[in-house]
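Exercise: predict the structure of this protein bound to heme C.
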Amino acid sequence: MRTKKPLFRLRNPTSATRVAAFGGRFIAIAAAILSCAAVIQPAWAADAVEKKLPVPKTKKNDLNPLPAGEKTVTTHAPFEDGDCSLCHKNKDPKEPGPISLPVNELCLGCHEDFQQVLARKSSHGAAQESCVNCHNPHNSKLPKLLVEEPGSLCLSCHEDIRKLATDSKVKHDALTVEAKCSNCHNPHGANVEHLLNKLAFDLCVNCHGQDNLKDHAGKTLTNIKKLLDQNPEWHFPVAAKDCSACHQPHGGDNFRLLIQEYPPQFYSPYDPKLYALCFECHEETVLQDPQTTTLTQFRNGSTNLHYLHVHKTERGRTCRACHEVHASKQKHQIRDAVPYGSKGWMLKINYTQTPTGGSCEKTCHEKRSYTNSIATAVKPK
Ligand code: HEC
Ligand code: HEC
Ligand code: HEC
Ligand code: HEC
Ligand code: HEC
Ligand code: HEC
Ligand code: HEC
Ligand code: HEC
Ligand code: HEC
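Solution:
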């Protein structure tokens, strides 16, 4: 019988960085599921917490009404009305004087529905502080009375995100197409944490539900929605609907916006650093020992087949040779076929699972089987 023990043990998710990246969601589920598995204290638990740049609560804008004759795109109804005393001390447009109430009391006095928006689970500090951080109360050359074009408006206060969006090697067009930041965030308040319009998973899968989406090198990206619909064996963090457990939504320096390194190719000389992504959650020791009867089920007797395939000075097979990290038809995220070469030809794996192991055939090699049952794992003396 196959042992049920989880062999790649989940690392102890106590790092503040991970907690931030997980938003707490995934850990709770993982901890519940793996509560009986021994958890190894990871080396990276002591990782320095990323230093966050401060986010200013207010921003200085030119709030004057546009000079007469300038082309306006939006005019605020109460300003159009001409009675400045709706908000200012005086009625007279030449001498309106100071405003009669604190800004947000003025705005929320008429925009009563926004009281509910700001009371949502996640509420924007910038809107709590002052509506005129982003809106001109009179008129504007931009839609929605905005003081600045939406992308740069948000980045003017969010320096961390600005760095990711502009300085990263891998940029994400989600930030620049259509509604920009508002593709994913509500500028005022939202029922999902981090001001998200919907669960991140739903946002991601919605845009990544098309066949012809291309990356910046012109390579067609997998239709993730279709992949998930057609492949029932979802990798744990995908099943936990946590795309940002592995991807940085705003941009990053790693291949495919990944939070850690992962080799982009089919072959790679072995270097544990290259698999830092997988080792965020899995134990790297499984690849270190050529012989084992405990560290992995992918072994023939005591020969560690993970080691055999991956741990090579040249042409080591990267995890993608056998695993589709999002979802697959077979258990253990074993894929049916893998893209081989830049033209996208698919090399079939033809994996068959058996009660005591499995086999692959007509793939990189002729049929090879492995047996990982305890009986055969004990080497004869
Ligand atoms: C919907 C409310 C509202 C109405 C109506 C309104 N204002 Fe204002 N106005 C504001 C707010 C809010 C400010 C920013 C004041 C502050 O931050 O202290 C402001 C500021 C100003 C300023 C100073 C800009 C600056 O940067 O200091 C001028 C000038 C001004 N308003 C003119 C007018 C005139 C003229 C009218 C009438 C034709 C008018 N406003 C009607 C809300 C309004
Ligand atoms: C006296 C009532 C009143 C006050 C005070 C008021 N608004 Fe409005 N606002 C309106 C009305 C009316 C509209 C148009 C509503 C519509 O079209 O649905 C509007 C529309 C808007 C719009 C949408 C503009 C567009 O063209 O899409 C924004 C943004 C806005 N207000 C922001 C503010 C801010 C910020 C304040 C506070 C400085 C404020 N409002 C104060 C009445 C008010
Ligand atoms: C961080 C910037 C920011 C702040 C602060 C902000 N808004 Fe907005 N607001 C936006 C953007 C961007 C839009 C247009 C995109 C959208 O509708 O989501 C918008 C749209 C609006 C609209 C038009 C909604 C519609 O559906 O047409 C209203 C009304 C409005 N804001 C009112 C307010 C009020 C009231 C406050 C203060 C409580 C406020 N905003 C604070 C950025 C901001
Ligand atoms: C005036 C500065 C300012 C502007 C402009 C601004 N923000 Fe913010 N934003 C803040 C502050 C302050 C916070 C609260 C930061 C904190 O608590 O650490 C915040 C928090 C956030 C958060 C995190 C919420 C959370 O719960 O984690 C998101 C997402 C966000 N802003 C998105 C936006 C978007 C999108 C825009 C443009 C529509 C924008 N911001 C424009 C100041 C700003
Ligand atoms: C593709 C969707 C998407 C877009 C577009 C997007 N974000 Fe986010 N943002 C997210 C997700 C998802 C999170 C939560 C991250 C997590 O769970 O680790 C987040 C978190 C944040 C946070 C709070 C956490 C942090 O990392 O500081 C801020 C601030 C923020 N976004 C600002 C922005 C700004 C500004 C823009 C536009 C330039 C933007 N976002 C565009 C998806 C997006
Ligand atoms: C508004 C639409 C939109 C949303 C929402 C969106 N994406 Fe994307 N994404 C794109 C587009 C367009 C591309 C192709 C261009 C590019 O590479 O930026 C892309 C590319 C990518 C890439 C490949 C980047 C590369 O160049 O290697 C990854 C990975 C990715 N997205 C993940 C995500 C994740 C995870 C989420 C949810 C947090 C998400 N996307 C949400 C539009 C979106
Ligand atoms: C366990 C980590 C992990 C999770 C969780 C994850 N991804 Fe990925 N993602 C990867 C890796 C690794 C790659 C690179 C795969 C490769 O090239 O073989 C990738 C690649 C991608 C790509 C590029 C696909 C292509 O054709 O090259 C997109 C788009 C993407 N992911 C979106 C998502 C979305 C959407 C989610 C949430 C449903 C998600 N990812 C969840 C690890 C993850
Ligand atoms: C965010 C954490 C996380 C990351 C990053 C991650 N995994 Fe996982 N993975 C898990 C969890 C949790 C499980 C479920 C473990 C269990 O059931 O014992 C899992 C399960 C798996 C399984 C299936 C185990 C089985 O027997 O069914 C494979 C294969 C796998 N991961 C491969 C990878 C690869 C390859 C990478 C790197 C590209 C990776 N994982 C990155 C969390 C992660
Ligand atoms: C040559 C194919 C192949 C490669 C390359 C490969 N795996 Fe596997 N892996 C498998 C097979 C087959 C299984 C299922 C073993 C079983 O249960 O019978 C497996 C199982 C797993 C499991 C479940 C726990 C276990 O060990 O039984 C994890 C986690 C995993 N692999 C992670 C990885 C990571 C991370 C990489 C890259 C560093 C990788 N694999 C590379 C074939 C491969």
